[in-house]
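Tokens in:
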């Protein structure tokens, strides 16, 4: 009898574990849809897509939003979609990030979705860890331990953070943003990291409970064209009494870099254009009733920072055979700004002619920012 009771106890424990596995690993219908969107270039598409399928054993659907990728990439995606059975949504024009995400979101019919950029590399168990966290905490948002650059999975980009508004003694509202553990080595700090509630997750890779969009207006704010959209989303979810969690058991890396091919260049310049950044800041401030303080003034002075650190730096380096020559760098920078403004203006005019609905979004033409008056 004692042995039978012991066997019965073990059987019940195994059954409970099996039921949990069924909940976390559905065999019939996936609970999660991965929505992949273009971030800043297309030349990393294959490496990222292959990583999804190689490192993700947890069942998922995949929606791939393709915003005007070059012919070679488009053909690759079409071939992979036929082989693996995922859905491609193709647009013949470049897309801003939240516009891309909303396109994918409109096709999601699962309990969860993962917004993922097209330059992310994954590790085994990443998706199951995110879903497990959401199931056990009832979180609206779950972010992984996010690394950056190559070699992958070594340097931390983000391990949770802060995003909220504070009010000073003059009743002025200021944005506070902080990213934890940035720049530290995974090997040094990961053993000390624990699942915890957080105020911030990033769109490089983030799991979201589909239901939360019913409480925040149905979609992401497309007027935030290329920056701070993750802050806006997390604060909006918090206003709707949703929660965000950081889950270090999920480890992924996004791989930024200069445009690897000429076909990346146009999209990269538009994606990080001065006009799109200024439009995003000019929308974020009144939306959250924020004062135009040092936080924003610092951002204004770095509008072209992404392009300077990649396109201009690498072009100057190539033309001088690795030598630093400031007059050439200044010359390239001046002409790059003119080209950037031209491309932005042309895109805005093209979009104005399209018979598309952009959720009341207006793509801005380039503007000249007078930094001397904002210092």
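Residues out:
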């Amino acid at each position: 009898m004692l042995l039978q009771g012991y066997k019965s106890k073990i059987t019940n424990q195994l059954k409970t574990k099996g039921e949990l596995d069924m909940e976390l690993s559905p065999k019939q219908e996936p609970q999660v849809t991965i929505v992949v969107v273009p971030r800043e270039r297309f030349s990393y598409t294959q490496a990222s897509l292959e990583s999804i399928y190689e490192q993700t054993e947890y069942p998922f659907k995949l929606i791939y939003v393709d915003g005007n990728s070059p012919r070679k990439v488009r053909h690759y995606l079409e071939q992979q979609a036929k082989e693996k059975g995922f859905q491609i949504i193709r647009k013949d024009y470049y897309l801003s990030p939240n516009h891309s995400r909303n396109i994918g979101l409109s096709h999601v019919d699962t309990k969860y979705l993962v917004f993922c950029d097209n330059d992310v590399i994954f590790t085994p168990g990443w998706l199951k860890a995110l879903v497990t966290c959401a199931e056990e905490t009832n979180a609206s948002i779950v972010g992984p331990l996010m690394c950056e650059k190559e070699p992958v999975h070594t340097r931390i980009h983000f391990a949770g953070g802060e995003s909220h508004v504070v009010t000073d003694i003059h009743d002025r509202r200021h944005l506070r943003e902080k990213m934890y553990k940035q720049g530290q080595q995974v090997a040094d700090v990961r053993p000390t990291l624990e699942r915890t509630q957080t105020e911030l997750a990033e769109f490089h890779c983030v799991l979201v409970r589909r239901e939360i969009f019913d409480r925040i207006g149905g979609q992401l704010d497309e007027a935030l064209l290329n920056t701070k959209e993750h802050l806006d989303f997390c604060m909006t979810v918090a206003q709707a009494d949703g929660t965000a969690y950081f889950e270090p058991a999920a480890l992924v890396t996004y791989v930024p870099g200069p445009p690897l091919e000429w076909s990346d260049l146009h999209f990269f310049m538009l994606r990080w254009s001065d006009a799109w950044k200024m439009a995003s800041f000019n929308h974020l401030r009144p939306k959250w009733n924020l004062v135009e303080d040092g936080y924003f003034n610092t951002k204004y002075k770095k509008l072209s920072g992404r392009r300077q650190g990649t396109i201009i730096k690498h072009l100057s380096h190539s033309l001088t055979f690795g030598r630093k020559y400031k007059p050439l760098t200044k010359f390239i920078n001046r002409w790059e700004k003119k080209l950037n403004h031209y491309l932005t203006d042309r895109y805005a005019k093209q979009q104005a002619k399209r018979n598309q609905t952009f959720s009341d979004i207006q793509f801005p033409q380039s503007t000249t920012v007078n930094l001397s008056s904002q210092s």
